[in-house]
Amino acid sequence: MEITKNDTKVAQYRAKAMALVSQMTLEEKVSQTLHPAAAIDRLNVNAYNWWNEALHGVARAGIATIFPQAIGLAATFDEDFLEEIGDAVSTEGRAKYNMQARRNDRDIYKGLTFWAPNVNIFRDPRWGRGHETYGEDPYLTSRLGVRFVEGIQGHDENHLKAAACAKHFAVHSGPEDVRHEFNAVVSKQDMYETYLPAFKALVTESKVEAVMGAYNRTNGEPCCGSKTLLKDILRDTWGFKGHVTSDCWAIKDFHEGHGVTKTPVESVALAMNNGCDLNCGNLFSYLKEAVETGLVPEERLDEALINLFTTRFKLGIMGDDETAFDNIPYNVVDSKPMHKLNVKAAKKCAVLLKNEGGLLPLDKSKIKNIAVIGPNANNRRALVGNYEGTASRYVTVLEGMQDYLGDGIRVYTSEGCHLCQPKVTGLANGRDRFSEVEEICALSDVVVCVMGLDSGLEGEEGDQGNQYASGDKPNLLLPGIQPKILELAKESGKPVVLVVLSGSALDLSWADENIPAIVQGWYPGAEGGKALAELLFGDANFEGKLPITFYYSTDDLPAFTDYSMEGRTYRYMKKDALYPFGYGLSYTNYDVKDLKLSSDTLTDDGIDVEVSVKNTGDFTGRETVQAYVKINAEAPLKHVPNFSLKGIKKLNLDGGEEKKAVIHLPKEAFALADENGEFVVNKGTATVYVGDQAPDSRSEALTGKKVLSATVNIPATEKIQ
Fold first, then answer.
1. Do residues 227 and 274 make contact, with C-beta atoms less than 8 angstroms apart?
2. Is residue 512 a contact partner of residue 578, using CB atoms and an 8 Å limit?
3. Separation in Å, CA 363 to CA 372, 533, 579, 618
4. Which end of the chain is more exposed for a tag (fewer CB within 10 A), N or C?
5. What's domain 344-548's architecture?
């Protein structure tokens, strides 16, 4: 194996870490395994707090740019853009760190170890933390996750710009209220086909510096102390060289929730011995006793510290090294370029779900009065999701419309209703804003209803303000009396646009039947209202595609606690979706034609697929060409995906412009995991589908378009290493 310059540098850092650790007492070593690592003055080691967050911007440490929530960024289907966002986040992170370090501020959320991205699979729309992810598809999650990590960590040969972390390893997606004792039971086939690919890609491709374990058990083993996950798969099979951290206070769950150990000492021994290097929490303080009683070899503790200090040396924060990032000034934080990028991101994220009769874009010349109503119309919390920072300015949808329209058009507004309660004011009767809604709808030419959720309704167990189900949704309905407000708007007889701000799929079936225009805006970032106003009036074009399936109702879903992929997501569902994965409309039309394959027989190098894409409308747009593969093996296979996304290409196209898109499908794109979790290319044929949507009947019905398809011959069955 070729030794690179980077490998040599890392070896030097490990040698430095080894020399440093060798000088520490047992008490000093233990102090370094907790997220607030103590200073060791005699060795010139500063205190360092490992816990920092940067899911969609630097979080919880003052002013920073709040980009759209991760699920919204996933809707861009744009790898290059995810790296651009990651780079912007780490630029602000370094700038804030440089300032804080100069002022000896080493508090929580002030370090350079960012516990992001979350690459869990959003397998069930009820999961409250799904909006932290890149959606339901392992390929899309892998590609976006890899590039976000590369943006965070940078490409300097000698130093990390910041350290990213792949979480939560592994097989983790609710329910939130039982996560501290829950056992996720999953087949090897589903584990390797769906739950592990993104983690593997981040480890082997982007060399993610850290991996965080999950709270739950997987097949009986607590994830933060799982020999299968942390040793057999992560270290031995994938060759992970970074450090592993527990989720916060997860190790006490070993004895308090999971019951796999009896005491704190046994719990820390299980975690440390199976490869967990760092404890977010305080339980690793018991490591001193665990080492002294022989439950943990001190050599293993040393190994953990070497992993941890290697990361700190890579970051160049040990006081003996200068980096190219030390001089990033604070004035890049919250700067004009960051604001511009943030608005661009919000525009790229939004998905146009319906546009009956071409209601959108709205024509300012034909509007004198417009109503902007709904509990999310002026809700800052619905802009930002969770794991968020603090913006210097927030632009809600109402504010965005007011700013955009200025004095020329009157903007009427009403909250309409509480987000989830039957009334807005505590002492009022129910439906206390209905008359206001009726009046402003009557006065207006167009009604924009801004509905949905916020992070008070969907989020993490324990988050302050979650209204029900510990952050998980009990169903897919618009909460409270929001549907009644939407009905009032419809009954007004005025054209209605529904803008949904949420981090997950909702049952929009009534709206689909009754409302002419529907936009999924996600949690679009601190300035999302500006972007949405520009989109609604046609100053920008929609390009977003759904990274998740919108189901009709929970009746279409298996039990929330069932981790089998059978019946879940576009890859395994048996029923039609309301709005399918990969779907999203535009203000223009695209014609995808002339599918060509480099070979009609699968080669060791895979195949290339080529199509021509023409913008047949007048609007400039950016289209997502999607390639899917369906396996048709000669021998019958169990639990085979309907089809799976395997390639993406983004194209900018002016009106009337035509370009070619070439997507490479490696041999691995034609492999499926078998019942042992081993990837196999099976003899037979595969169907390759290429278009700007998925190859399902519902997408075809919604768009009136079919995707192109071709058959690839697979000459022999073989395992893929």
1. yes
2. yes
3. 16, 12, 27, 16
4. N
5. 3-Layer(aba) Sandwich (3.40)
How many residues are recorded in the chain?
721
Rg (CA), the chain: 26
pTM of the model: 0.98
> At which residue do the structure tokens 């997950």 appear?
504
Whole-angstrom Cα distance, residue 152 to residue 132?
Answer: 16
d(CA 652, CA 519): 21
Residue type present at position 494: K
**Which are the contacts of 52, defined by CB distance < 8 A and separation ≥ 6?**
58, 59, 60, 61, 93, 108, 109, 110, 111, 112, 113, 114, 115
Which has the closest alpha carbon to 10: 207, 285, 284? 207
Q: Kindly report the backbone phi and psi dihedral angles of residue 410, in degrees, each rounded to the nearest multiple of 5, phi listed first.
A: -75, 130
Q: Are strands 621-633 and 221-222 parallel, antiparallel or unpaired?
A: unpaired
Q: Which residues are catalytic?
A: 247, 458
Q: Locate tokens 């207006």: which residue? A: 444
Evaluate whether 550 touches 508 at the Cβ level (below 8 Å).
yes
Residue 710 contacts residue 630 (beta carbons within 8 Å): no
Domain positions in the chain are 26-331, 344-548, 590-719
Question: Residue 340: which residues within 8 A CB-CB, separation 6 or more?
Answer: none
Cα separation, 647 vs 582, in Å, equals 12
| Closest C-alpha to 272, from 295, 253, 252 | 295
- d(CA 576, CA 432) in angstroms, rounded, equals 38
**Chunked mean pLDDT (size 10), the chain, 721 residues:** 70 97 98 98 98 98 98 98 98 98 96 98 98 98 98 96 98 96 97 98 98 98 98 98 98 98 98 98 98 98 98 95 94 98 98 98 97 98 97 98 97 97 93 97 98 95 61 95 98 98 98 98 98 98 98 95 98 97 98 98 98 97 98 90 98 98 98 96 98 98 98 96 77
The dihedrals phi and psi of 218, each to the nearest 5 degrees, come to -120, 120
Query: Does the domain made of 26-331 have the CATH classification 3.20.20.300?
Result: yes
Residue corresponding to tokens 């695209």 = 590
Q: How far apart are CA 56 and CA 39, in angstroms?
A: 30
| Distance of alpha carbon 92 from alpha carbon 99, whole angstroms | 11
